[in-house]
Structure formats: structure tokens, C-alpha cells
């Protein structure tokens, strides 16, 4: 592992048998896993370049068990790493050698659906796609749709603030979650938000969504469900250059058109996806845009004409419009399968995640080509073009000495580029361990200290998912110190309590 993680606490590891016995008393039967062979499936998440078997795995089935496990670990000073389906691409669920891995897979029930209020209450282990499956017969669906939606869990989506191909118009997880039930590290169970559009009090729900398992463990989620649009049609638009495609993205948005989805793929990704799903993607173009419009039929027809006109003006060399629902879904099938498709053309790939202003898209894609040549590694680009959320797939071979390190360096340069042009380090994959050491490229020491103070407010012992997000995790006592210089505190005119 080229990534540095916190040094394991040998004293805690020495108590492994005692810890397992105590947790078995809370979660009986097969709820605790301590056999080394059975721990292997939990040694990594979707960022498989980094692996570390956990000390123990606990699989609770009720919120009371979650509460009791956390309360016991809190009292004993034992670290806990929450895990959903393990599809995180930033190492957010990477275990620690001296930590209990808390698996939430058994929380897999849709608890309630209210079509009048347009909400569903689900457990965190329910997969993203299962929410739509539960309500589609009544004409509803759940809008956020990550490419891994068949496997990723709602709890993981909450942790990482996941998006998907339709987040441009309908928002990310944070825009579609109304409330959560959260278990704190000391075992306290709290509810944040609810079915009301705008609950009273501080927006603690907005803090929890995207907190990457650092603040608490989610045991229930209330999500917004939407009525399926009357019409949805997609355009498949080919361009002779990625720069032309990027300009088309900017021009469509500038024209006041907000597509339901707007995705881009470059030549390597197009060829990989077409070979994998065989849906008829054009193979003689350098870039492909998939643009979906939805709403009333008349509105869709008008907007399709407008998007095609803009695309032609930007140099589109082909434009194919879906004729029916089956063809629309076929257009998306290739994009949804792009990640596994790229896995067929390279022994390994490193999936990055950064976000940039849309207007800088042509420039960034061009500079990524230069970085590819500089690092000597290929890259396939598949991303949410409409909101500037990039997902470059760096192609490498882990069996070649030094290839992983070059891929990491290439990825770091891409993320620094994103920040340089006014973007951010992540869009939906989170920081985890992957981007942890790059946080100072975006945040000052003061910024990071304030974020860590928030962490301390929820988890004073720093026991939940340590080693993630923050490059240097200060103790809460250090962050709370008052600096005194020459007998004077900062801002002496302010009253102190």
C-alpha cells in the first residue's frame, strides 16, 4: 500500500478476542466475523488499489444493536469504520487493522412509501435502484442514479452525496434526502430532518449528507420520490474533437436549457462501451454526448430541436435521436456500463472524480491529454458533462512495478488541475483516503481546522472512520485551545464566556 494510514493500536489488537466476545453478546449468531479468511471480502471497497483486512466485522440487524455496538466501542476506545455495499471509489470504507468494521448490509428493507407526500422511508442497506423498483408501478422513481445503482446502497449514497447521470436537473443525494435517523458514536439515536419540506432548526441534515461516515451511522433514510415525466428522449451526438463537445455543453446550458442528463465519453470510452454493450455508438468520433430531455411532449420536441441546432453549430458530425423508450434506454446502457467496459481494455484502472466550471471543460480535457503523455499512461474519459463532474479513468497495470504510483501521481495532477481552474477535489465520490492528502490544495489550515472542529462536536474521541478526509487529524483538545500572545488573546474587544 503506497498510502499512509494511522498506526494501528497494538493494545487494541491484543484485545481482539475480548472485543469479539463482547460484540457477540450484542449481535449474536453469525453477527460477528473474526475468521481471517472470512474477513478478506471486506479488505477493500471499490478503490481496490488499497487493501487492509479489518480487525473484526460486525453485522447488526437493528438500530438498537447499532446503538449498543457504538456505545460499547465508545466506552472501550475502539475505532469503528461504517460500511454499506462497499462500492466507494475513494476508499471511504477502507478498514483499519485496529478497528471494527460495521457492515450495514442487513438493513435492506423499504419501510414505508407515501405517494401523497411523495416520500419513501428506507433502511440504509437498500440499493439505489431498489427504491425506484419499489415505487415504479405507481409511476414514481428516485432521481439520483449513480452508475453503480444496481449495487450501491442508499446509506453509502448519503455518506458520499452521490449523484448520477440525472443529477444535473434533479440534484444529488443532498437534494433528494429529507431526513435520516442517525446513531452517534456514544450510542445516542437522533433524527434529523423529516417529511416536512423545511424542518425547523439548524440544517444538521445538510452536514450529515456527504460526511463520509465521520459523524454518525445512518440507520434510516427518508427520500423524495418523483412522478415519472410524461416524455423522455435522448440524443446521441458525435463530435470530431473533445473540445467541440465541451463547447456544446457550455452552449446548451448558456441557452437556458437544463437537460435531465448530459454525459460525455471520449474515443477510448466510446469504443470500450460499444464493444461491451453493442448499442450502436458511432466509432468514428472523438467525443460523444448523450443529452436527455424530459417533460411534456411538446416541450421535449422543442428542446430537442434547440439542442440539435446548437450541436450542429458547434461542429457535431452526427446526431441520432431516440425513437422510443427502448432506444433511449439503449443509449444510456453504454454509459452506465462504461466503467466495467473500460475494465476489459486495461488490466486495472483508477477512477478519478473532480469537478470544474463547465466553461473550462475544453481546456481541462486538452491539458489532461498532455498529462497523459507526461505520465505515460492512457486515460478514458466518462463524465457528467452538464455539471462539470469529471470521471477520468487512468489505465495502468498493477503487475508492472511503478505503474500504480504513476497512476496515483497522474490522478493527483488531474485533481490539482481541477482546483487550479476554479473547481473542487470531488463531485460525488467523496474524499476518503484517495484525496485526503490533497485537501491542502483546496483548503487552508484554518479551513481544515474548522471542519475538524465540526467532527469533534459529533465524535470527540475521533473513533468514527479515522484516517479519512483529513490529512492531519488533530486531537479535539488541540483544536479547542485559545492562542495567547504577549498576554493578549485574539480579538480582545469581544466578550468571553
From TrEMBL:
State the UniProt keywords alphabetically.
FAD, Flavoprotein, Oxidoreductase
Q: Does the keyword Protease apply?
A: no
Any Pfam family matching the protein? FAD-oxidase_C
Q: Which cofactor does it need?
A: FAD
Gene3D superfamilies named among the record's database cross-references: 3.30.465.10, 3.30.70.2740, Vanillyl-alcohol Oxidase, Chain A, domain 4 (1.10.45.10)
- Entry GO MF terms: FAD binding; oxidoreductase activity
All residue ranges annotated as the FAD-binding PCMH-type domain in the record: 50-228
Query: Is Flavoprotein given among the entry's keywords?
Result: yes
What protein am I looking at? FAD-binding protein
Organism for this UniProt entry: Chelatococcus reniformis
Gene name of this polypeptide: glcD
